[in-house]
Design brief:
The chain has 555 residues and is α/β, with parallel strands linked by helices. The chain contains 14 helices and 32 strands. The chain is globular.
Length: 555
């Protein structure tokens, strides 16, 4: 007798589970329920369709009910919302546009309801001029607002990935765009100085950023909508988009006996089994383990959702596959820049009380003597044993593959020493003999070997100037063109002949442009008996950390 498997929800988790199930079991009766019209679509591509980079709406449709039936013999029922499950009777209750309400039995059930945009209970928040972006229908509504011809401006509320991507794409359409974020930075997976580089790119491209401000309400006007902030200021747009985060779409499961976390996420074990017999869950609605620190968390990303759907299907078929957690590897385009991250950032590690070290490097995407090499910034976070805890990168070219390499080593519980030993394919158009990830790893090795002590730009605030000397070891011209206040200039090539200008009773804090000459100065001075620290990432990291968005005109 064939097994009957019901899948609640499509897109990444559900559609992946369905296809995997069919490949494993040709005889299974597979039914997928989707409350909307589209069962498998490229939700990560929605902002780029809005911006015009993707011209053909049909390209967003990965699979249709017809294609899933023809290739995989899957019974796809769209406009069919599962509103309850009964684990004792092993049935689900379905509210269908075409069939009304009915029950469907199952032998196994995979839940992949996903997450829905948070819509806060603020005055005026239900206005039709306020949009969210989750699916094709949301995209169509935004496109209608834009195609009416009167839309000249937009207010984006929320500086996460969706908010930033929408801000870019609406700006590309020619709209005046303002992005409002309650935190003091955009893009929470990045630490502040890395996020600042991406924020500056947005400002340089004409997006107005308003940080550290909460929205308190909305008011429709004749030509759009006013967004009222917590300081009393009002920002106007032809339309507004809420992108303040997502919440698991699990309300229909509250009375099912299913175990859920404090924020409504479905609790699963490593085989993605829930506490209910023969009920599995995958995707944005499940609580997962943070691969780096082992804590429970939620990471709503397409990559993990696809893997989870596959693993859930494996276990329905008895294969015993396991999901070992998510490290949150992510990437986004911000106009001409790319930002990517993996693992834990400093904010997370500080919150957990985890001891860590940081190095920053600013290498080029490939050999500088080959045309079109571009700079990038890499941040590597590791512990006292050299275990990689996280990394972040920003640049115009090559950031994706460098963070991808670090993410792979992190996934294998690797160390900075493993990273240093990676053997890269090298030819000048693509890399350097010492790849950027090597440079980051070498810098980290030097720290753990005791060859250098590094400091971060924020450490300057606690520097005791009566007991320390800040030395800029760049050239005189570089120093004149911009320096850290209070520093003295002794170029590294003159350092050995000018040691008498330094007080050996004081700590010497050195910096250069990107950290390399500072390390050379550090080694010279240390071997001459001085106590020395080097600014990791140099003056470039200092400038990144100092960046602040322009103050809005209303303040």
């Amino acid at each position: 007798m064939s097994k009957k498997v019901l899948i609640v929800g499509g897109v990444a988790g559900g559609a992946s589970a369905a296809a995997r199930l069919r490949r494993l079991d040709e005889e299974a009766h597979i039914v997928m329920f989707e409350r909307d019209a589209h069962v498998s679509f490229a939700n990560c591509g929605l902002p780029y369709y809005i911006g015009g980079s993707i011209k053909d709406r049909g390209k967003l449709l990965v699979q249709t009910p017809e294609s899933l039936y023809n290739r995989f013999n899957i019974d796809v029922r769209i406009h069919s919302e599962v509103i309850a499950i009964d684990p004792t009777a092993k049935t689900v209750t379905v509210q269908s546009r075409d069939r009304g309400q009915y029950q469907e039995s199952y032998d196994a059930l995979i839940l992949s309801p996903g997450a829905k945009p948070i819509r806060p209970a603020l005055p005026g928040a239900e206005s039709a001029r306020i949009h969210t972006l989750r699916n094709i229908a949301d995209t169509d509504r935004i496109m209608i607002s834009l195609s009416q011809g009167a839309a000249t401006s937009a207010v984006i509320v929320g500086g996460g990935f969706i908010g930033v991507e929408l801000a870019e794409n609406l700006r590309e359409r020619g709209l005046a765009v303002t992005l409002v974020e309650a935190a003091d930075q955009i893009l929470a997976p990045f630490d502040q100085e890395m996020a600042g580089v991406l924020a500056k790119e947005m400002e340089d491209r004409g997006v107005q950023l308003i940080l550290s401000r909460k929205v308190e309400g909305f008011q429709e006007t004749a030509d759009g909508i006013d967004v009222r902030l917590d300081n009393g200021a009002v920002v106007h747009g032809s339309l507004a988009v809420l992108a303040i985060g997502v919440t698991p779409d699990t309300g229909f499961l509250r009375n099912s006996g299913l175990e859920m976390g404090p924020r409504g996420h479905i609790i699963v074990n490593e085989r993605l089994e829930t506490n209910l017999e023969n009920v599995y869950a995958a995707g944005d609605a499940v609580e997962v383990v943070d691969f780096v620190n082992g804590a429970k968390t939620a990471i709503p990303l397409a990559g993990p959702a696809n893997k989870q759907g596959r693993i859930a299907a494996d276990n329905v078929c008895g294969l015993g596959s396991v999901f070992k957690g998510s490290q949150g590897t992510s990437i986004l385009k911000v106009f001409n820049l790319t930002g990517a991250a993996t693992g834990n950032n400093e904010k997370t590690l500080k919150r957990l009380g985890t001891s860590y070290q940081v190095v920053n490097v600013h290498p080029s995407s490939h050999a500088t003597y080959y045309p079109d090499a571009s700079p990038m910034s890499l941040k590597l976070i590791f512990d006292e044993k050299g275990t990689i805890l996280g990394a972040q990168g920003v640049g115009t070219d090559g950031v994706d593959k460098r963070i991808g390499e670090i993410a792979a080593v992190l996934r294998l519980r690797g160390t900075i020493y493993d990273l240093a030993e990676l053997e890269h394919s090298y030819v000048p158009p693509y890399s350097s003999a010492k790849d950027p990830v090597h440079m980051a790893a070498f810098a980290a090795e030097n720290v753990l070997a005791g060859l250098t002590e590094v400091f971060l730009p924020r450490d300057l605030a606690s520097m005791d100037r009566s007991k320390s000397i800040l030395v800029d070891v760049r050239t005189e011209l570089e120093h004149k063109n911009g320096n850290i206040p209070g520093s003295v200039n002794i170029p590294v090539d003159e350092l050995r002949s000018r040691l008498g200008e330094l007080d050996s009773s004081k700590d010497i804090w050195v910096y250069c442009q990107v950290g390399l000459r500072g390390y050379t100065a550090n080694r010279i001075l240390t071997q001459k008996g001085f106590r020395v620290k080097n600014l990791t990432g140099g003056y470039k990291s200092y400038r990144m950390a100092e960046y602040k968005p322009k103050a809005p005109s209303f303040e």
